[in-house]
Amino acid sequence: MNTVIAGDYSGKTLDIAPGTNTVRIYYSGLKCFPVNKDTVAEYAVVNAESKSGFSVGKAVAGAAVFGDLGVAAGVGGKDKSSYQVDIRFRDGKRSLLELDGKFYKALTTELFGLEDYTPISNPLPSAKPVVMKSKWVSFFLCLFFGIFGAHKFYEGKIGMGFLYFFTVGLFLIGWIADIIMILKKPDPYPVSK
Fold first, then answer.
1. What are phi and psi of 90, to 5 degrees?
2. Which letter does DSSP use for residue 111 in this model?
3. Which of 43-57, 66-80, 93-107, 144-158 is most confident?
């Protein structure tokens, strides 16, 4: 967490400058590069995830050791947020940062003052890879073998393929809906894995 995961400066760590909201990238020993409105041309949030700190296991273990106070501690865990932010610097370099909530708040506080901000039109890919599939192959597989889930297997969605296979295309309703949806897709169309 709080590292550069792709692009320029990949693998480098981040910190927040003391007394400011400026996130810095450490790239060579003690040398750092500020990520602020003077160095960033544009940025985009590629992916944001939030995980609750609630855990039944933590609550049970807390109750066994500390009683009611332990239950409250297990239930009241903090949210753990993760953000992937694609940044294009004014010098032409680009980096994909993975940040926790504290670093994301510092970064956005620093960058919202950016007067010439424009969203990135082609952000770096997120952690999920995307493959392109042919619309017409998918359409004909769905048309002739869709009730058996052939088009889902073609897209790499094995679980949905088996679900279609055992439910006769989700009782034919899913099969009809998929035929219509496939016709509306571009050729080729992206499928995330």
1. -65, -25
2. H
3. 144-158
